[in-house]
Amino acid sequence: MAAERNKAEITRLLRQWGSGEREALAELASVAYDNLHAIAVGYLRREDHAHTLQATALVNELYLRLSKVEAVKLNDRQHFFTFAARLMRLILIDHARARRAQKRPDAAGRVPLHEEMAWVDAANEGILDLDAALDELEQFDERKVRAVELRYFLGCTNEEAAELLSVSRPTVDRDLEFAKAWLYRRLAGLPGAAAGTPA
Question: What pTM did the predictor assign?
Answer without folding.
Answer: 0.67
